[in-house]
Every structure is written in C-alpha cells, then in structure tokens.
Design goal:
The protein is about 30% helix and about 20% strand. The chain is built from 22 helices and 29 strands. Strands 9-8-16-15-14 form a five-stranded antiparallel β-sheet, with helices on both faces. Strands 23-29-28-25-26 form a five-stranded mixed β-sheet, with no helix packed on it. The protein has a three-stranded mixed β-sheet with strand order 4-3-7, with helices on one face. Strand 8 and strand 9 form a beta hairpin. Helix 5 crosses helix 6, helix 14 crosses helix 19 and helix 19 crosses helix 20. The protein starts with a strand and ends with a strand.
C-alpha cells in the first residue's frame, strides 16, 4: 500500500512503513510483576552478599596466630608449640571428643544450636529485658555461633560489639556447616591461662584425651569457657565445682539420675597446666620439616617413649658431667619409630640437651663389622667359619690392633665377629676392598662421611668414617627384614623407603652369629638354656669418644649412643660396658615377647668344614682336616681359606714316606714309598697353633739315609735378645736399637716385628732395628719353607 501526499501541488505516492516491535523478555515480565517489597528484599540480600564477600570474617587457623601440637600415634601430646601469643592449642576433630562433652555443651550453652541461623532472637530478647530490668547484664543471649564469632574476632561488650557479633555469626552460618562451627568452638574456646580448646584443657587439667571424658569431666569443661580464669580447676576447685553443678542440673533428662549422682560425687582433682615434653628433639625436628601445620601425628608410642626416657635418666648418676645419650627404637615390620631420644636430659643444658645425637655424624667404631662379613658372604669370599688370622699383621703399613691389646691366633668368622676382633676384620676388608664396601653400604642406605679429600681405606671398618645413629639403626633392620634395610619413619604418611643391603641368606647367618655365635655357639647356648633372641653389636670409637650398641629382635631394632657431643674422650667408657647394658634394659622393658624360631632360607645350610683349608669335610681326605667346624654355607659354597700373605705356594702339598713312616724321596731311599697329601696352615698362624695341631701338621722326620734338613723350630734360632727380655731407652727421646742374628739357616729369611714385615734378607746378614714404640714387641723370623722362631720382648 501507499500513502498519497502532495509536494508542490503534485500528488506523491509513498510506501507505507510498518513498525515491528520486539517481544518482551521473560525475566522482565517476571520482574515487572514482582511486588515492591520483594524487590527491596532481593536487593538487600544482594547487598548483604556483596558485603559478605567484601568483608569476610577472619578465617580460623589462617588469620589467627598459629599454634602447633606434635602428638604420638595414640594422640598423646609429645610437645606443644604455642602461637606468638603463647597459646597452647591441641587441634581435635568432633569424632575424637567424648559425646558426653558435646551433650553437656549444647544443653548448657545453646540447646537450639542445630536449629537457629546463628542468632537466637528469643535469647537476645530475654537478655535485653533482663538488662533493662536489672540494670546490668544477667545473661548474654549469645549462641555458640556468636561465641565463635567473638573468639575469632574479639569485640567490646557494647551494643555495637554485640551487633558486630550478630553479623559475624550470620556470616559464619552462611559459610560453614553446624559441625564445622562446633569444631571451631571446641578447638578455640578459652580454657584458662594459655589453654584453648577442649583437648588442651583435658590433657592439661585431667591428664586424659577428650574422647575419654567422664560425665563430671564433661560438665566441668563445658562450663569452663564462661569464666576461664575464675573457674580454673587447678587453682579454684571450689568455684569450679559450683559451676559444674549448674551444668549437671541442666543435664537432668538427658543423662540418667545415677550418672548425675556419680558425677556430683566425683571430686575435682586437676593437674597444674604444664607443657608436655616427650620426644622434644623429634618434635622440634617435625616442626621445622612440616611448616605451617597445626598438628603433627607421629609414629611414636607414648608408653615406649616414656620408658626410654626414664631408663636414660636413670643412667645419668653413673655418667660424668657433660656426657649425653641417645636412643632410637624402630618397629621392624613398618620401619616406624616407636621412641626417639636425642639427648639424655632435655632439661640439662650442661649435657648438651639441645643437640640431637640421633642425627649427629659420629665414628661408628666396630658397628659396621656385621655388614662387612655379610657382604663378604654374598661375594663368596667366606662362610661362617672361614679361617682368619688374629695375629699381628701389617696391611701395606697399616697395623691394626685389638681393643684388648691381645691376639687369639686362628679364629673363625663367627668368633671374630662376636669378639669384635679388629685384625680379622681388616683382613676381610682387604680382600673385599674398601671402595666396594663403602659403595655397597651406600646402596643399602648407610652413607659414610669420610674425611675431606680422603678415599675409603682399611680404617673404615674400625671407625675411620662417620655416620648417624638414625642411619645405623635403619641399616641394622636388614637383619630382621631378610636383608632389606630401611629409613626410619616418623610419620605414618611418609613413604616406605627400603634398599637391599644383604641377601636373605647372608642376613640370616649374620644375625644368627650375633645372637648365638653361629652353629657351634648356638649348640652351646641351647644346651645351657640361655637363648635371649637379641642379635647385638657394640662399638667404640678411637679415644673413647663414642660408645655404641645396636640390637635386633623379631619386633624391634634399637640403637644406643653414649658420649660427649663435643667429642671429648671418656676414658674407660666403651660400648660393651656402658652402652650394651642400657640396650639390654631397653629390650627387656620394651620387647618382652619370646623369640620365634627362625627357619634358614633355602640358600643357607649347615656343613662340616675343615681347617686349615676351609673346605667341606671329606672322609676320604681326613688327613687334610686338622680341625672340624660346623658352619653356615651360603648358596652351597664353601670358599677356601684366604691365600697365605707371607709365603707363596699352594696350601696343599705332598711328601713321600717309606714303610717305616719315615720321610724319604727317590734320591735317598729304594724302599717302597707312598705319597701323603698334607695341608699347610698360613705362615702367620703357625706360631699360634696348639702343640697337638703343630705335631699333626708337621711332616714326619727324614730317614737317616736322607740329607739332613732343618724342620720348623728345629734349629732356626734368634740370637741377640732372649725371650721376655726388658729393653729400656737410654733417654726418653732416644728409642733403643737392637741387633739380631739368625742361627740354623743360610738362605733368605723374613723378619717381622709385631706382624709387620721389616726386612727380607739373607740369613747371614744381621737385623738392625730401632724400637720406636714402647710396650710388648713380637719379633718373628721365617724362611721360605715356613720354619720360624719368635721372641717377645718389652720396650720401656
């Protein structure tokens, strides 16, 4: 269609324009139909939401000062670290609080807590009327939510302060559930002095956790926040009892009459609030490692910890001043620490109370020897009774001695380990090699600290490195865990860290040796009825600076260290006489379960072996077996005795005898001859053999028709000094010089002084030697055929 119009007198036809209107949106229709009061309410709620987001309430635990509690695995406080306001607070969940306390709290403080929105108008109106009528505040009208608001943001006791409390309470109800608000109250309610929260009050005043509160206890702690200072049960028991009575009256109908009567008869006996101090150094360590935490749950067993600390304290009277102690108890099954004592007495600064000796690097003394023999077993170098030489020896200039300054001659591995003999250990390490030994320990989790710019050497096995009690105990758990060593765990959520230290067979053998002396020692011990079930080892560092004892049972591994943290020597204090008795007492007090019989793993079996060759006993070669030993063999292997260090040649040799039993050869006898197979002892051990074994090991005399030949101890003699002679220095700074000659030999000979080779020369040439050291001096001469003579003199 068009529209007719005129322009300058002429008609114009224009198209008709149709205006389309957009349909109205649905929400606008709804909003336009809403009544004015609803619009105002919605706008107010939107404003409140915006204000809530703009001015949020303080967040408990984040905006408030931080307090920390370190607890044992059963919740027993080990140590409380107050916040910057010196407040002690023990965080606890609702499920860990006695229902009796929650019933008393809600009944007395806010019975409508589960139903109101944070504010109880009826209670506020009642409080306002009482205030107006009496001219003073009779009741506050505050709900539990309002009390939480006042706790997290203190306000003055004015109308403005009350209004602020109400607003904050509404905010809390908006943001948190009822249980979360209740949890805030039970953790932050003032309980008198520096205590906050029901758990802290229950532990401090009643000596029990909040989950074990009785009816009387629950009533007392429920009313305590109303006037914390005035109702403290440790200072004002009468006022506290009167306040408790009010709560008990309110509980009528909730609790039975008999329970209320019993609660009224229960006297109020409260302890003075004290800071808990159990495993203080571990707690300090956990606090530093877990920054920002409010509660740290450890694996410590509180009764075990108390026992350990009491036993350590009982030893203080026999220790010199400034000597400290440390002990660590680890559960073998879980590697969780059950007790941790880093110092002897945390209250005694003179004994370096704040130095944690569980983590301090110290010389381990002989405590590494079990791992040496275990690794040598795995390498196929030894079995449990391999022949070793506990005699004066020199290893490339290194001359170890024993702790008791004596030697035992031929010993087996079991005897060497149980007696902690040094020379045999160095001999085995020399065969295993120090570098491989240290590397194997590191792979097993035991890291040794060596002197700066030093590489591993033979002294490592005697304490020439450093480690910690923590690492040592973790390594010893391998003997109860089929060779798997582990890192002690102090929190249950820590991962299980374990490494293979030994094979299961080697771990079994070494534990059996440490516990009962091996197969031979076990037979003797069982016959005497003295089986203890503890495999243990002691150690003493150079200069009596450190005394160690580490033991393993089926259930626990325990380590003990005694010494001065500053490294000052303590003459006369060594592992066997000071640390071992404490270790035995700890096992007696902690682990009273009888040992369970252990079955050797498939890789371990018992065999009879022979000295001096170290191989299995063969009835067909009985002449080669001078002494039989019952031994543990690993992987069905019987390694032979180590090669002779002093003379070459095979340990097995043969000679000929005639029908009369005289020694002959083809050059001097035409009689029928037969060949005899014989075994030779290591040359260093021949002077130490008993007379019967010497006679058995020595070949028979030569036939008279054969050329005369000198036999061991049958003509080889040292002249110049006599056995037992005392040699004195002419002056204190001038060592004596001796001149020795040899009779009965004309070839080449070896001269040894205290087991160290000092000369290899012709028998005709005299030995001139300077005695640099005082004390006993053993001088031995030996020829190529093993014949020898030895004298002992004393240099003073």
């Amino acid at each position: 269609m068009s529209v007719l119009c005129r322009c300058r007198g002429r008609p114009l036809y224009l198209p008709k324009i149709v205006m389309k209107t957009h349909p109205e949106k649905p929400w606008r229709k709804v909003w336009s139909r809403c009544p004015r009061w609803l619009k105002i309410l919605l706008f107010a709620l939107l404003c409140l939401f915006a204000l809530d987001r703009a001015f949020p309430p303080p967040t408990p635990g984040r905006d408030s000062p931080q307090a920390l509690i370190v607890v044992a695995r059963d919740g027993t406080p080990l140590r409380a670290f107050p916040d910057r306001n010196h407040i002690w607070r023990h965080p606890v969940a609702l499920t860990d609080v006695s229902p009796l306390y929650l019933e008393a709290l809600l009944r007395y403080e806010d019975r409508w807590f589960r139903w109101h929105p944070g504010v109880n108008p009826v209670a506020l109106a009642r409080a306002a009327w009482q205030w107006a009528y009496h001219g003073r505040i009779v009741s506050g009208g505050s709900t539990l939510t309002m009390q939480v608001a006042r706790i997290i943001e203190p306000t003055p006791r004015t109308l403005t302060g009350k209004a602020r409390q109400i607003l904050r309470a509404l905010q809390l109800e908006w943001r948190y559930s009822k249980d979360e608000i209740l949890a805030l109250y039970i953790n932050y309610a003032p309980m008198g002095g520096v205590l906050e929260g029901v758990e802290a009050a229950s532990r401090a005043y009643l000596g029990k956790p909040a989950r074990r509160l009785s009816h009387a206890d629950a009533a007392l702690l429920a009313v305590l926040p109303q006037a914390p200072s005035r109702l403290r049960p440790d200072r004002r028991p009468v006022e506290a009892e009167k306040a408790r009575e009010k709560v008990l009256q309110r509980m009528s109908g909730v609790w039975s009459d008999s329970d209320i009567i019993d609660a009224r008869q229960e006297p109020i006996i409260a302890y003075a609030a004290r800071e808990p101090v159990l495993a203080p150094l571990l707690a300090e360590r956990m606090r530093r490692e877990a920054k920002g935490a409010r509660r740290i749950d450890t694996t410590i067993d509180a009764p075990t910890q108390e026992t350990v600390e009491l036993l350590l304290t009982s030893r203080l009277s026999v220790l010199p001043p400034r000597v400290s102690m440390a002990a660590l108890v680890v559960d073998n099954a879980t590697l969780e620490a059950r007790a941790y004592a880093g110092s002897a007495d945390y209250s005694d600064a003179d004994r370096f109370a704040f130095v944690d000796m569980v983590r301090a690097a110290r010389s381990p003394g002989s405590t590494l020897k079990p791992f040496l023999y275990g690794l040598a077993l795995d390498e196929g170098l030894i079995h449990s009774e391999s022949l070793l030489a506990d005699v004066p020896q020199s290893f490339g200039g290194y001359q170890p001695g024993n702790f008791q300054q004596s030697f035992h001659g031929p010993v087996g591995v079991s005897e060497a380990l149980t007696k902690s003999l040094n020379v045999p250990a160095v001999e085995v390490l020399d065969r295993l090699q120090p570098n491989r030994f240290v590397a194997a320990l590191r792979r097993g989790g035991l890291k040794l600290d060596l002197p700066r710019d030093e590489s591993p050497n033979l002294s490592v096995i005697l304490g020439g490195a450093a480690t910690t009690l923590e690492q040592l105990v973790g390594a010893y758990t391998a003997f109860a865990r089929q060779g798997m060593a582990g890192k002690p765990r102090y929190r249950s959520e820590e991962p299980l860290v374990e490494q293979r230290m030994l094979s299961p067979g080697a771990a079994f053998i070494i534990r059996d040796v440490l516990e009962a002396g091996g197969p031979v020692g076990r037979a003797v011990e069982q016959g005497a009825g003295i089986r203890r079930g503890i495999a243990w080892k002691t150690g003493t560092s150079f200069g009596f600076r450190d005394a160690w004892s580490v033991g393993v049972s089926d259930n626990y591994t325990i380590g003990v260290w005694i010494g001065r943290p500053d490294g000052t020597p303590n003459p006369g204090f060594f592992g066997a006489n000071i640390a071992a008795p404490l270790l035995v007492d700890l096992f007696t007090a902690i682990d009273n379960q009888p040992p369970t019989p252990r079955i050797p793993p498939p890789s371990v079996r018992q065999e009879t072996i022979c000295w001096p060759l170290g191989i299995r006993f063969d009835p067909a070669e009985e002449a080669l077996c001078h002494r039989r030993m019952l031994a543990w063999l690993l992987n069905d292997t019987a390694p032979p005795t180590f090669p002779d260090r002093l003379r070459g040649g095979e340990p097995r040799y043969s000679y000929e005898v005639d029908t009369a039993g005289m020694r002959v050869n083809a050059e001097c006898s035409d009689r029928p001859r037969r060949t005899i197979e014989a075994a030779r002892w290591p040359a260093a051990l021949e002077p130490w053999l008993p007379a019967d074994i010497q006679a058995r090991a020595r070949p028979p005399a030569w036939d008279a028709r054969c050329p005369p030949t000198l036999e061991p101890e049958a003509g080889l003699r040292i002249v110049g000094l006599s056995h037992g002679e005392v040699i004195r220095r002419p002056r204190p700074d001038q060592p004596p010089v001796v001149r020795l000659e040899l009779r009965g030999q004309q070839g080449e000979v070896y001269w040894l002084v205290n087991g160290r080779l000092v000369a290899r020369q012709s028998a005709r040439q005299p030995l001139i030697h300077r005695l640099e050291e005082t004390g006993r001096v053993d001088i031995t001469v030996m020829d190529e055929r093993g014949r020898y003579d030895r004298i002992s003199v004393s240099a003073r």
